[in-house]
Amino acid sequence: MPRMSRKAIEGTYFHVMIQGHNRRYIFKDESMKRKVRETIFQKAQKNNVKLIAYCIMDNHVHVLMKINSAKDLSRMMAGVNTSYAKYYNFVKQRVGYVFRDRYRAEAIYSMNQLINCIKYIHENPVKAHMVSSAKQYEFSSVNDYYENRIEEDVILETFGDEVEYLDKITGIYDDYNFIEIDNEYGEKEFESFEVVSTEFKDYDFHKEKDVYFVAEQLKKRCGATNEAIIKFMNLKRATYYNIMKRMKNLDF
């Protein structure tokens, strides 16, 4: 399979996270984990979205997916949130918000980032000290890979090699800052990175003040990761971090 261009990766692969409102443990019971997994599978199929990896934790869910359009992503996640919220409120005999925000999403910009995102998702239960090995956790896709339950077309489209894909999703992480459950900006709904970033496309990222201002806006409004901002600005990682450090130390 030919190597995917940055444009192709950026436009079709997304890491998505949903989280319980006020960090509530909305997936704590096994029955609830099974319900949200079933819902994710159903809504993905309905909206022609291909699931690459997932992990369902007690109060949040990570999903890596391949989409055909932003509308497919939006419709799928709206369906997941609405369907599961109705189920959760019925079971708990309550009313009100179930999710912290609609969802958070980040585009994947390279094959290396894609592979590391799969590793990151599968290692969530290990990092949370729920299991000692990712393969011990029932509510993720890790064993779908090890037991050859991933659809062949997903393997070929994602990795380009049906035989050696397991080698690519095991090993040491590279330094990527994927979206996490907590952030410093509190309870709010995040705007779409793809929409908001267009407002800043004409800024001069050779100017440190522009870099700092736009980065802060993208973090506050979109919950954007440093990795996504670096890719958007087309900067070297060291350059970006040095600029951010210098500008934070200045007194405006």
Task: Give your account of this protein's structure.
Strands 2-3-1-4 form a four-stranded antiparallel beta sheet, sandwiched between helices. With 252 residues, it is α+β, with helices and mostly antiparallel strands. The model is unreliable at 1-10 and 183-189 (pLDDT under 50). It has two domains: 6-168, Transposase IS200-like (Alpha-Beta Plaits); 193-248. It is globular. The longest helix is centred in the first third of the chain and has 23 residues, at 70-92. The N and C termini lie far apart (51 Å). Helix content is 47%, strand content 10%.
Looking at this protein, list some descriptive labels:
disordered N terminus; Alpha-Beta Plaits; alpha+beta; 47% helix; single chain; four-stranded antiparallel sheet; globular; 2 domains; 252 residues
Gyration radius, rounded: 19 Å
Note the main sheet.
Answer: 4 strands, antiparallel
Number of helices in the DSSP assignment: 12
The portion of residues assigned to helices is 40-55%
State the order of secondary-structure elements, H for helix, E for strand. HEHEEHEHHHHHHHHH
Distance between the termini: 51 Å
The third-level CATH topology of the largest domain is Alpha-Beta Plaits
Strand order across the biggest sheet? Answer: 2-3-1-4
Number of domains: 2
The CATH superfamily of the largest domain turns out to be Transposase IS200-like
Q: How is this fold's topology laid out?
A:
Elements: H1 6-12, E1 13-19, H2 30-46, E2 50-56, E3 60-66, H3 70-92, E4 104-107, H4 111-122, H5 124-127, H6 142-146, H7 152-159, H8 165-168, H9 193-196, H10 208-222, H11 226-233, H12 237-248
Antiparallel strand pairs: 1-3, 1-4, 2-3
